[in-house]
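Figure S4 source data
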Amino acid sequence: MMKLCSDLLKALEGKTLATAESLTGGGIGAAITAVAGASRVFKGGIISYTDEVKREVLGVSQADLSAFGAVSDPVAQAMAVGARRLLQADIAVSVTGLAGPDGDAFGHPVGTVFIGIADENGAAAGEYHFSGNRESVRAQTVAAAIELVLNRL
């Protein structure tokens, strides 16, 4: 993970990054800030574990939360857009998903994760399916989010 984060910091040189995290509870920010020099590019993160925080802080619409659920493409995109705007970053990554022990009312099983990204070119999100226990799903999500930012740069 340290190598991945070091590569990210190098790739971000001259740009800034923000995060909006749900199921990882700050794990992306923790991984990035474990590397010396992170303060040059990492602006910070918002842990939006509840729908209320997604809505009231990040600006995710209640309509999207009701129609698609918190674990969805539109919500992941809106989370990334909100974090980018609030923290005035060049790029933002967001994660929302199910680490267990249960799925959700929309039929998503444990391990379903949406990772969103937003930059000056707009926002996008992708659906991922990870396996393993809660800790494993969260760790895989952190790595995938960092890799997504690296690939976007």
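Figure S5 source data
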Amino acid sequence: MPKIGLFFGSFNPIHIGHLIMAEYFVENTDLKEVWFVVSPNNPLKKKESLLSEHQRLYMVNLAVEDDARFRSCDIEFHLPIPSYTSHTLVHLQEKYPGKEFALIMGEDNLQNIDKWKNYQFILDNFSIYVYPRPNCDAGKWKELPNVKFVPAPQIEISATMVRNSIANGKSVKYFLHPKVEKCIDEMGFYK
């Protein structure tokens, strides 16, 4: 059964840090693919700073369309809002019974997993692949049998930094996939 890593996020916008992490996980773990699950509304983030989910999904599609190892996923667009990872995982299992899913997350997310809805269900039923984050310590969560720490490179690029740079008229050419950069420029996003 192929194991698929689920990389959840707002992807506002998707940047090369996301792509580097996805590639690292496919090339250095037992994950065969990474699906970028675009969240329409993260209950822990403010919605007013987000582009529409369809615009963000479009940019993810642009970034991954030429790489068979990667895929965009809009399953949360069809679920009640706010979306919760535990609900999404159940729906993915029902929709794709022949696939095994694992989560990819930063250590900062694991550190706060007890704030997630039905977090114990996730910890008990899914592998979680964790990449290190500066100034984070996931403490007791690191010892759980389904948690696997992966020594992925620490990429200090954030979507917030990319958005702020664009708003201030600075180049982000090397922070974005070329197709994503072109789309953002043509559409005037984040200005």
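The radius of gyration is 16 Å. The chain has a mean pLDDT of 93.
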